[in-house]
Amino acid sequence: MSYELAGTGDIDVVNGVRVRNSTQRQSWQAAFVQRLAVTDVIAVFGAVAAAQAIRFGGPVDPPLAWPLPYEVGYSVVSLALALGWLALLHGYGSRTPQVVGAGSEEFRRLVSATLRLFGVLAILALLFRVEVARGYLAIALPVGLAGLVAGRLAWRVRLRRWRAQGRCLTSVLVVGAPEAAQAMATAFTDHPGSGYDVVGVCVPAGSVGKQFDSEDGPSVLGDDRSVLDAVRRSGADSVAVAATDHLGPVELRRMAWALDKLGVDLIVAPGVVDIAQARLTNRIVAGMPMLHIDPPQYGRAKSSRKAVFDWCFAAIVLILIAPMLAVIALAVKVTSAGPVFYLSERIGRDGTPFRMIKFRSMYVDADRAVEAMIERDGGNPVFFKVKDDPRVTAVGRFLRKYSLDELPQFFNVLLGDMSVVGPRPQVQREVDSYDGEMRRRLLVKPGVTGLWQVSGRSDLSPEDSVRLDISYVENWSMVLDLALIARTIGAVTRGDGAY
C-alpha cells in the first residue's frame, strides 16, 4: 500500500494571492481517514484474534456458554465483537476530519467507544446469562485499545512530517481586528503542525494595511465585511474569526450559513491564550455556546506531591548519571583554569535568592564583562544571551549545546531551591525589571527544565519566554510535568536553540 496522500500539491499564486483548491483538502482528508480505518481494522481484529488464541491456547474454537440450545463458537463471538467495535468507533466520530491529527478529542472518542462496547457486553451477559470468558475480554480490551492508540499516534507523526513539508494543510482565512488577526496568523505560521496555512486576512476597513506591511506576512484580501468574496478569491477551506468589534452574534450566524453553502468551515477563537484544556469547559447557556475558564490554580504548583516527586526524581537521576558527572568535571578541570562548578545567584520562589549550581562553561571572571556586553550589543537585560559568546570555553560550548552544564542543578532540587520542571531561573537584574505580570513567575520554584526548554531554549524571544513561564504557572499539573520531562529529552538530544 502506498502511503502517499493525494491532493498535497503546491500552492498556486494568482495575482499575488496564494490559492489552494478546496478539493485538495477533501482528497487528502479522505485518504488519511482511509489509512486510519485500515489501521483500526488491523488493531481490532488483531486484538480479538490474539485474545482468542491466548485464552484458549491456540487456533481452537470453543463454544460460548449460554442457555440457548444451539452452539456458537468463539470465532463468531470474535467476529461480532470486532465488527461492533469498529461500528462504535465510526459512530463516535473517532475518524472525523475535525478531530484526527491533533488534540486529545480523538483519543477520548477512542476510549469512550471502547469502554461503551465492553460495558454493553457486560450488561447483555448479565441480562441473558451469557458466560463470556473473562480472560478473553481482559486480553482483547487493553490490547485492542493499545493498538488503536498506537496506530493513531503513528499516523500523527507521519502527518506532522507531511505538514512540515507544506503538505496536508487546511488553507485558512483569518478575520479580525489587526492585532488579534496578526497574532492568530503568526500562531498558525509558527506552528505548522497545527495544519493551517494562512492564505490571507480580512480586517476592519479603517485598519487595512496597518499591521501587515511585511513581504512575508499574509495578504490583506479585504475588510471584515467582504469575507465571502475573500474566500472565493483565495480558495480558503476555513475561516478563523479572531477578536473583533465589527462581527456580532447575528453577523457570525449569517456568515456560518453563507460559508456552509460554500463548504467552508468556520472557526471562532474565544480570545484567550495559554489556557490549558483541563481548565476549559464548553457549556450551552440560553442557547449560546459559552467557554467556562477555571481560575488559575497557583497553589497546585506548590503541592507536596510535586515536592516529593521532585526529590525522588532528582535523587534517582543523580545516582544514574554519577559516572557522567565525574567525566564532565574532569574535562572542565583539565581544559581551563578555574573551579569545576559555577555558583550563580538566582531568584527563587517568592523572590528568595539561592546559589544555583552548574558546571563552569565560561572562563573565570566572565561575569564582570556581562554589563559591558549588554550595553555594547544593545541586548535585553531581561533575557541576555548571545551566540558565539567569547567568554565560553571549548568544552563549555559542547556542554551548553546539550545542556550538560545544567545537570548539577539536580542538587539544587534536592536542597529544595528548585523543581525538576518550572520557570526559567532568573538573575537579579531580570527580576528588577519585572512588572506585575512577570512577577507571577516567582510564585513557584524555578525548574531544571520547563516549557522554555522544549519550545526553543535560547532562541526564544523575551516575550515568548515570559509567556511560556506564566502559562506553566497557571496551568500546572503532574501530567504536564511528565510530558515536559519526556519532551526535554528530545530537545536536549537535538541540541537545538542552545548556546
Following the backbone from N to C, one meets helices and strands in this order, namely EEHHHHEHEEHEHEEEHHEEHHHEHEHHH
Q: Order of strands side by side in the largest beta sheet?
A: 5-4-3-6-7
Helix amount: 40-55%
Q: How many β strands by DSSP?
A: 13
Strand composition percent: 5-15%
Q: Which radius of gyration do the C-alpha atoms yield?
A: 28 Å
How does the helix and strand content classify structurally? alpha/beta
Using the alpha-carbon principal axes, give the shape: globular
- How many H/I helical runs? 16
Number of domains: 3
Distance linking N and C termini: 44 Å
Structure description:
The protein is α/β, with parallel strands linked by helices. The chain has three domains: 22-164, no CATH class; 170-271, Rossmann fold; 300-494, no CATH class. Helices cover 47% and strands 12% of the residues. It has helices at 22-56, 74-91, 105-127, 134-164, 178-190, 227-234, 249-262, 304-320, 322-335, 370-377, 394-401, 409-415, 428-432, 451-454, 462-475, 478-494; strands at residues 12-14, 17-19, 170-175, 196-202, 220-222, 238-241, 265-268, 280-285, 288-293, 341-347, 353-359, 419-421, 447-449. Strands 5-4-3-6-7 form a five-stranded parallel sheet, sandwiched between helices. A two-stranded antiparallel ribbon has the order 1-2. Strands 8-9 form a two-stranded antiparallel sheet. Helix 1 packs antiparallel against helix 2 (74-91), helix 1 (22-56) runs antiparallel to helix 4 and helix 2 (74-91) crosses helix 3. The longest helix has 35 residues, at 22-56.
